[in-house]
Amino acid sequence: MRETPSLRPSGFGTRYLTDKEKVWDHNAWDNPEWDDEMEKNAIEVIEGQKVHPVESHSVSNLLSNPVRQWNNFYARHTNKFFMDRNWLLKEFPELDMEKYPADSHIRVLEVGCGVGNTSFPLLQWDIEKKMYLYSCDYSSKAIDIVKGNENYDESRGKAFVWDITEPHSSDIEPGSIDVITCIFVLSAIPPTKYRQAIENLSTLLKPGGCILVKDYGRFDLSQLRFKRNRFIDENLYCRGDGTLVYYRTKEEMETDFLHCGLEPEACTYDRRLIVNRAIKLQMHRIWIQAKFIKKTNL
């Protein structure tokens, strides 16, 4: 079996705040301190959000029709909302095809591909064409945009619609995928469907294959900035456009993946302190970055 490169920490930078008096010198700091007082304040903010939740008659519609919300999102924004993820190879070297032997044939599945902000950069970087890339999304509008891109080439990859909370796609043979990417995707799934989604993805992995995850962590600034009528349930919210987002802890994520037969090789918080120097405001980004391996004895 090929050797899989190890997960490296977030490559955003190595700017550490060692002197708190200098916090305003830069717009961002890596791996900042997170203490009990900060967590207490975050919990108080969330308790305040619960006072004005989403109206009950809207909740069932939001939970049962996520596809509609995402189709509306892509119909409105097309390919002009997200930026290409040019940091991918630095944070996930498993996707760097230069690290594999010349005769390698690596099958990758990108989950929640949107309009191709991961797909097309990965194919562009794969100069020797070692990768075959499957790209799926449960928004048909997003897939239409991907297929309409001038760089879409089915000799190198295939895009298709798939709700990963449903049985695995017939577009992919079970046990055939080397690497699956889930970049800010699993948080869009209601907690009740989370494990089913992971199990569905696991069936597509080869033994020893991996799932790479980057997603929102509990108490991320985006969670704490929600105002009235966004709270649905514990750590589950709807955005203004109706799309869902759930904020996990890394322990919660590890438990769910282990339940589905996937072992954590790495699962860490990727923290960032964002500084607005104009108004003297400090905000914490808290993401989870992880790599889970499919057990070889299943």
Structure report:
The two termini are 16 Å apart. The chain has helices at residues 36-49, 56-64, 66-77, 88-91, 119-125, 140-147, 194-204, 221-224, 250-259; strands spanning 28-30, 106-111, 131-137, 157-161, 177-183, 205-216, 231-233, 236-238, 244-246, 262-276, 281-294. The protein is 27% helix and 26% strand. The strands form two sheets. Strands 1-10-11-6-5-2-3-4 form an eight-stranded mixed sheet. Residues 1-12 have low confidence and may be disordered. The longest helix has 14 residues, at 36-49. The protein has one domain (26-294): 3-Layer(aba) Sandwich (Rossmann fold). The protein is an alpha/beta fold and 298 residues long. This is tRNA N(3)-methylcytidine methyltransferase.
What's the end-to-end separation, in Å?
16 Å
Q: Output the helix-strand order.
A: EHHHHEHEHEEHEHEEEHEE
Main sheet attributes: strand count, strand direction, barrel closure: 8 strands, mixed
**CATH topology descriptor:** Rossmann fold
Helix count equals: 9
Mean pLDDT: 85
Query: So what's the oligomer here?
Result: single chain
CATH architecture: 3-Layer(aba) Sandwich
User: What's the CATH H-level superfamily name?
Assistant: Vaccinia Virus protein VP39
Strand order in the sheet with the most strands? 1-10-11-6-5-2-3-4
Low-confidence stretches: 1-12
User: What proportion strand?
Assistant: 25-35%
Please state the CA-atom Rg, rounded to the nearest Å.
20 Å
CATH class: Alpha Beta
Give me the secondary-structure category.
Answer: alpha/beta
Number of strands: 11
